[in-house]
Amino acid sequence: MKTLLTRSISGILFVSLVVFCLLGDKGLLIALFGLISGIGLYEFHLLFSSKEKFNYPVLLSSLIGVIGFIVLIYPWFNLLASDYNRFLHSGIHLLILIIIIGFFQFIYNSKQFGSNTLLMVKGLIYVVVPLFLGAVMHFEDKSNFPILLGLFLLVWTNDTFAYISGNLFGKHKLIERISPNKTWEGFLGGFLITILVGYLVDFYFFKGDFYWIIAAIIVSPAAVIGDLYESYLKRKNKVKDTGNIMPGHGGILDRFDAMFFAIPFFYIWYIVFT
Question: Where do the structural domains in the chain lie, given as residue ranges?
Fold first, then answer.
């Protein structure tokens, strides 16, 4: 009971913080995503350092995560530039950062230069790039319903009702060797309720548009894949949680695992539709 109460309070505070940043000034979301980038990259590399596969000052990865997010999002403050030019500059900035990381990694530990630099790049792609894409959508959003809030709502709905459906009706394992607690019944329950929420958003804010229904169909499986990938990383490295920053939930990666996959898939739908 105490664990459930701790988990509930922690979850409510986290959701409140995210919603506050989404509905407030755009700078608040940039600050939040920058912070999550730093903590997320730290947790990602801590997973591997626990098995001594990653010989690198792990705390330094926090700084790299924050810098990575800043150099990616910085060109988007130039409102006069085209999206193409801004993406081009973001890509160049990221490439320069990777070269700098590789250079210092070579000086620090030339024997593991290749593997450590590659792992750092993987971390940037897994953690920082999705948050950057989310921030880009938030920058460009002019709809009457905040698009990133809608995405978070779909992912949270999918996670919550997949958990509830799995506990109530779960019998058939989804991929037992990766995540023993996930079931097909949980997946289906989360999927259907997420589509329902997408329909309600369409009905009340977009007057019959199917945008969010289709988004729900895309986001729900992507969120599950993200959750499974995180479970795979934790099982591979024999850890239960990626951190303890959120009491009852674990680390940032434990809470954002679904978002890291949902954002890129949703972004594809976003650019196709707009």
Answer: 21-140, 143-274
